[in-house]
Design a protein that fits this description.
Zincin-like, elongated, alpha/beta, UTP_pyrophosphatase-like, three-stranded mixed sheet, 190 residues, binds zinc ion, YgjP-like_metallopeptidase
């Protein structure tokens, strides 16, 4: 974690790229009188504080705000147990002929893929980029990986089942849009 202090307030479009994962940026704003805000932008946490806040107050407040953001994110992230429940529900609803169930679902830092499935041991991994995704996009990826428990490739049987997902086009558009934004804004993966 690195702390950068007293950098000028940047226009939002210059702050979009994820840049360094986990970086904390503290912005001193002359426009702010008392209020303090913190939010996640790409891989960074941006904390905006009043320009006149003392260094001592800043040192006390910044870790508090970081903890708050991380706690909020953790509470919004579906647990792995709840992902298994969601997959079960999706399969019961849209693919009752599939009896396979995952043995585990884990969040994984993956930038090249949205999910992966190992059918021999029934394990599924989901990209942590989906932690903040709308339900329909996360469910779509879960459903996709669940079908792989039976069908290895994206053949006709696979796509016939996947197309039963009610918001397939919308979910695909979300994922494509996310990737397009990522490709446009992020530095290439190392
Ligand atoms: Zn696939």
């Amino acid at each position: 974690m690195s702390l950068r202090f007293a950098i000028p307030e940047l226009p939002p479009e210059e702050m979009l790229p994820g840049m360094t994962e986990g970086e904390i940026i503290v912005v001193r704003s002359a426009r702010r009188k008392k209020s303090i805000s913190a939010y996640r932008q790409g891989g960074q946490i941006v904390i905006s504080i009043p320009a006149r806040l003392s260094k001592a107050d800043e040192r006390a407040i910044v870790p508090e705000m970081i903890a708050k953001i991380r706690a909020q994110e953790a509470s919004k992230t579906p647990s792995e147990a709840s992902l298994i429940a969601r997959i079960t529900q999706l399969l019961e609803l849209h693919a009752p002929e599939l009896s396979e169930r995952p043995t585990s679902i884990t969040w994984r830092a993956m930038r090249e893929r949205w999910g992966s499935c190992t059918s021999v041991d029934g394990t599924i991994r989901i990209s942590d980029r989906l932690k903040s995704a709308p339900d329909y996009a996360l469910d779509y990826v879960l459903f996709h990986e669940a079908i792989h428990l039976r069908f290895f490739d994206h053949g006709a049987q696979f796509t016939a089942i996947l197309s039963r997902f009610p918001q397939e086009e919308r979910a695909q558009a979300y994922l494509d849009g996310y990737e397009a934004a990522e490709n446009a804004l992020l530095p290439p993966a190392l």
